[in-house]
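Appendix B. Raw example, untouched.
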Amino acid sequence: MPRRQEDPDRLIVCRNRRALHDYFVEDRIEAGLVLVGTEVKSLRERRADIKDAYAVIERGEGWLLNLSISPWPGSKYFNHPPERRRKLLLNRRELQRLAIALKQRGYTLVALEVYFNQRNRAKVLLGLARGKRKYDKRETIREREEERAARREEPE
């Protein structure tokens, strides 16, 4: 099976694969992360969990919640709290557009990926998403299985 093409300019730290199962992602937004030194070192060692991470907009600023970055083992005194709120770097227009979308019923900002770009900046890929119902999830699974079966039957 051919794998999805990866972007060679990205060093992906972690992905939230469950988000695509639980949400319809309608738009994707790249945002920078404000981190302290030991968080960057832990991210480089891929010691992060993005499973429950989401973003909120409060008082004109974007915040990423529930992104768990484990303490760096090389530091004894100056480590960071693992699940602290992290500020998102977005411009004003993006923040306003997202704030309007989040006020609509059913939308949320879900963290999809954390990665380093080609300039070694920590970034997070956010998805403007609407939650799926149980029958939507079943339909998605059925479509995926049909696609796999069709791929298996194709002669190469």
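End of appendix B.
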